[in-house]
Each structure stands twice: as C-alpha cells, then as structure tokens.
Design brief:
The complex is a heterodimer. Chain A has two helices and no strands. By secondary structure, chain A is an all-alpha fold. In chain A, α1 runs antiparallel to α2. Chain A is elongated, with a radius of gyration of 14 Å. Chain A starts with 5 loop residues before the first helix and ends with a helix. Chain B is elongated and about 75 Å long. Chain B is 54% helix and 13% strand. In chain B, α1 packs across α5 and α5 crosses α6. An eight-stranded antiparallel β-sheet of chain B has the order 4-3-2-1-5-6-7-8, with helices on one face. Chain B has two domains: 163 residues, no CATH class; 149 residues, no CATH class. By secondary structure, chain B is of the alpha+beta class. The chains are: A mainly alpha, B alpha+beta. Chains A and B meet through α1 and α2 of A and α6, α9 and α10 of B.
Chain lengths: 54, 367
Amino acid sequence: MTSIWNIPLKLAAVTGVALTTALFFDGATDVVSALLLLLPSMVLLIYLYRSRRT
Amino acid sequence: MLSSRAIRRWSFVHTWSSLVCTLFLLMLCLTGLPLIFHDEIDALTGDEPVAAAMPEGTPDVSLDMLGSKALALHPHRIIRTIFYDPDAPHVVKVGLVKSMNAPPDTMHFVAMDSRTANVLGEDGQPHGVMNFMLVLHTEMFAGLPGTLLLGLMGLLFVLALISGVVLYAPFMRRLPFGTVRKTSTRTRWLDLHNLTGAVALLWILVVGLSGVMNTLARPLFGLWTMQSLPPLLAPYAGQPLPATLTPVQGVVDSVRARLPDMEVTSVIFPTTQYGSPRHYVVWTRGREPVTSRLFTPVLADAQNGRLAMAHGLPWYLRALEVSRPLHFGDYGGLLFKLAWALLDIITIAVLWSGLALWFKRRRGARP
C-alpha cells in the first residue's frame, strides 16, 4: 500500500465505523459523535503540523 | 500508474462533473446546514404542538373520535391521513383534503391530544423559513422534475468524487499527507482542496449517495404501488367505491394484534393519490434502532376491515429507508448533529476551493 493512502484510509475507516455503528446501536451515539468530531480535529492538527514544516 | 493521457482524461471528467454540479451542491450544503438542526429550531420557534402533561398510562381516545372532531371543524373535507407525530408524544395529526383525489399539497392538518381529543393547533401547508429551506433542498420549488434534477447533480457529484480520488494518488505521491505548500496561491488552494476532500471523502460519498437515493423516493414508491395494488384491486373490478368506511380504530387494533412487535405510525385513508381507493394503508415500523427505520405497510379492506396484505417492502424501498438516516444524520444526539454540521462545512470548503481553483486556472490561462 502506498504510504500516501495511510492517513486517508484511516480517516475513511473511522468515518465508516462511526456512521454504521450509530445506525445499529442507540447507545453508541456519543462514541460515534466523538469519532466524527475527531476527523476535522485531525485535519486541523495535520495541517498545523505540516504548515510548520513547509 | 496512470499515463499522462489518462490523467488528462480523468482531470477533464473531474473538472466538468464538478463544475456542472458545484452551484447545486453549494445550495444543498447551505440549506442542509439548518435542516440538520430542524428539531431544535422548531422547538425554539414554538411551531410544534405540545400535549399537556397527564398521569402516566392515561389511555388514548379512539382514532375515530379524533377523526370525527377534525371533520366537525371542517365539514366539507374528508380524512386523508391520521398519524402519530414522531417528535411530539401523545400528539396525533389528522390530515384533511377536499376530495379523494386531491393532491397531498392541499392537505389541512388538525393536531390533537391523543388522550383528550383537545385541538392543539391547526395548520395548512407547512410554511416559514425552515419549510423554504426544505423545499429548496429537496425540489427547488419545481416538484418532481426539480427533485430528479438534484438527483442527477448528486450523481455527477459522485463522479467528481471518484475522479478526484483517481487524480489524488499521482499528484500526492511525492508529498506527505496534509502538506499545504505555500509556493503560490493556486498550489495552496489545491493542497487545501485535496486535504479537505480526502478527509471528508467517505462521509461526503455516503451523504451524497443517500441523497441521490432520496431523490428517487417518489418514483420508487410509485413503482411499488403499481406492482402491489392491481392484484388486490382485481376482485373489486366494476364495483362502486364503498360509501361508508369501517371504523379506523378497529383496523389499527387488528394490525397491532397481527404485528405485535411493530408500532403503528400512520393510517392513509382510501385515496386515488399514493394509495388504494378501497383500502386503509396502515404504516408500521419496528421498535429497535435499526428496525425503527424499516416500515411495513398493512392494507386493510376499508369496507369490512379485513387485512389484505402485511409484508415488508421490496429491496429497493428497504435500501431507501436505510439510506435516509445516513443522509439526515438524525439518528444520534446533538453532538452527532454538530459533527454532521462540521462535515457539511468541510464539504462547502471542498466545493469552494474547487471553484476557486478553476477560476484561478482560467484567469492564468488568459493571455
């Protein structure tokens, strides 16, 4: 697997897990919300990290 | 590895499939943002009727009594539907129309307390800012053609996403993920476009595809009606329509006895619009998180109350039902909706940066 896909694939996996888990389990919504909120936060962190280096 | 010719082709597909649908998608994302919070906004504006607090276990009055009371208020109308408000406990709404074949958008609603039959409010067709947003979002005030056009735009958007992913790999091969180069304004926009697009890709795909599914709702339900009704109506060929209807409460009680694990959500009275002229259609749904998304219609003879059909919907309507919550993001709490809103804003950023890139390239190409 090319390294460029590592992070996007992990993000896609998090999104996929989050979306489907909440659909099947009512009690999981807090966890799922946290996972979905994690995505934009990760982007911001990655962006800040890369901007510092380039 | 893509050849330079293949890259050019994919780039052409990505540019034009995006450009055609971008303005529509921007409109959908902007109108979708407040719609995510429609429950909270409706509660704030006080548009929804609320039933008074009563002791736990207070029984409901019969649906026939609710229907009679609504008809007494509007004697020149007939009942088209009675439904339990999914967002307000103990609130039942009776939808009245002027004739059996009146279109649904002429329906007048009377909201009542299911335990006392007290009238909680009356309303014609929905109105206000949120309804404006909803109609713009779902059909652009153009009815079914508007809905289908939005579905087509959704398909183009999916094509833009797929072509974007194909182009993403060769362009990002030499750059670590998340790099935003500051060599030029265009490069910076391109990197931001790729970054936000890759991050929200799966969510955008899921919401986009489920949106396309939703645009097909009316034709798909029409197809199901065309397939299911003729065999049920065949024995009545040539007979006049029933002059009196059997009490609706008895029908609902029979349905509850037949499907004890299901919850009755609404009853459609005999109609030539989206139903049968000889049957009540009682809509039921499961009580578990997933089954609550899956509806089962039960058809009952309107003259004698005999149940004529009670089985699940075909696969294409099941797929539609499951796709709905994935599009609306309404199956979690407020935090979940906030996440939905944030991803919606990221999608707006992807669309906007794509548009900016195209303008910058166009300006750069000019002599």
